[in-house]
From TrEMBL:
Pfam family, any one: EI24
Taxonomy, superkingdom: Bacteria
Bilayer topology annotation: Multi-pass membrane protein
Chief place where the protein resides: membrane
Keyword terms, alphabetized: Amino-acid biosynthesis, Cell inner membrane, Cell membrane, Cysteine biosynthesis, Membrane, Sulfate transport, Transmembrane, Transmembrane helix, Transport
Name of protein: Sulfate transporter CysZ
Taxonomic placement: Bacteria, Pseudomonadati, Pseudomonadota, Gammaproteobacteria, Salinisphaerales
Taxonomic source organism: Salinisphaera aquimarina
Listed InterPro entries: CysZ-like (IPR050480), CysZ/EI24 (IPR059112)
Listed transmembrane segments: 29-52, 72-98, 146-173, 214-241
Subcellular location, record wording: Membrane
Length: 251
């Protein structure tokens, strides 16, 4: 398929994920991630959400006089980046805490739609520990690439017109990151190594980018973000199964 077709297919998996959340056999695996989401949203909004406008104004008031002409552009860039940062921090923290439960949810989805549960070769305790360790390794991987993108963003910041690319670059990076975050669940359930996961992720990069893009946008919607995490786990599992040779999805 061409990149545009692949990209447009990606978001459909999150919508399918929302639809499957109503399945009775999945409910007990969905409740805990939703409760974690509620607790984190309350904590993060209490921490800095209500003060966002004040922080942006305070930061921009410190600009030197020769940069005042950039104030409006920088305000919007800062607002977009702050919103994206909230989405990513919320998602990464939620997944770090819920990673053991998300792995169980992904396995149950696979059993539901194929009739066969995945086999990682590890015990239940080993799978849960691997989920947390895998999450920490991904955070380190994200951090290194976010640092490089941050350096590039600083270089673009003071270049007229080029600085408009900062927010889209961070959005694309975040969409890829969130795609990896959720696709890791079905891949980890099969015991794939970190490098094998990266190879698999890049093999369908446009479809995965489309999926991650809608996840990013949905995470920014109040109330909807409460169920984005379990819906994304379900959707990512369906996406993985649809692109896995030899797997027959019954529904």
């Amino acid at each position: 398929m061409n990149p545009i077709t692949e990209f447009t297919l990606g978001p459909t998996y999150l919508l399918r994920g929302f639809g499957l959340l109503r399945e009775r056999s999945l409910r007990r695996y969905v409740i805990i991630p939703i409760l974690i989401n509620i607790a984190l949203i309350v904590a993060l909004v209490s921490l800095f959400g209500w003060q966002l406008d004040n922080w942006l104004d305070a930061w921009l008031s410190g600009l030197p006089d020769w940069l005042h002409w950039l104030e409006t552009v920088l305000w919007w860039i800062a607002l977009l980046l702050s919103t994206l940062a909230f989405c990513y921090v919320f998602t990464l923290l939620a997944n770090l805490i819920a990673s053991p439960f998300n792995g169980l949810l992904s396995a149950q989805v696979e059993k539901l739609v194929t009739g066969t549960a995945p086999e990682s070769g590890m015990s239940l305790a080993g799978e849960m520990a691997d989920g947390v360790l895998g999450e920490l390794r991904r955070l380190r991987w994200y951090g290194g690439r976010a640092l490089l993108l941050g350096i590039l963003s600083l270089a673009l910041l003071f270049i007229p017109l080029a600085n408009l690319a900062i927010a889209p670059l961070w959005f694309i990076f975040g969409a890829f990151m969130l795609s990896f975050e959720y696709l890791d669940q079905p891949m980890a359930n099969r015991g794939l190594t970190f490098q094998a996961k990266l190879v698999r992720l890049r093999s369908r990069r446009w479809r995965h980018l489309g999926f991650g893009s809608l996840v990013t946008l949905a995470t920014a919607i109040p109330l909807a973000n409460l169920v984005v995490m379990p819906a994304a786990v379900v959707g990512a599992t369906l996406l993985y199964l649809d692109t896995e040779p030899g797997v027959i999805v019954r529904r």
